[in-house]
């Protein structure tokens, strides 16, 4: 059985602090059809900031 990438695509999360830091993750399109926003650690500013999905 082939792995379906339609339901769980790979997305990039870019920092809103303007440092250019990115995280790469997968998301479930059925549960999260909108753009993903997560609070994660940005090592350049040394604190947690919001990371938004980039397309």
UniProtKB/TrEMBL annotation:
Q: Which keywords has UniProt assigned to this entry? A: Ribonucleoprotein, Ribosomal protein
Give the family this protein belongs to, as stated in its UniProt record: Belongs to the bacterial ribosomal protein bL33 family.
Its protein name is Large ribosomal subunit protein bL33
Q: Name one GO biological process term.
A: translation
Q: Which gene encodes it?
A: rpmG
* Superkingdom, taxonomy of origin: Bacteria
Query: One cellular component GO annotation, for this chain's record?
Result: cytosolic large ribosomal subunit
Tell me the GO molecular function terms.
structural constituent of ribosome
Q: Which organism is it from?
A: Pseudonocardia alni
Q: PROSITE patterns, per this entry?
A: RIBOSOMAL_L33 (PS00582)
Keyword Cell division: yes or no?
Answer: no
Record HAMAP family = Ribosomal_bL33
* SUPFAM superfamilies xrefs: Zn-binding ribosomal proteins
């Amino acid at each position: 059985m082939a792995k379906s990438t339609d339901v769980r695509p790979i997305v990039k999360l870019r920092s809103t602090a303007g440092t250019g830091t990115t995280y790469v993750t997968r998301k479930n399109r059925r549960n999260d059809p909108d753009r993903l926003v997560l609070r994660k650690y940005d090592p350049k500013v040394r604190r947690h900031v919001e990371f938004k999905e980039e397309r």
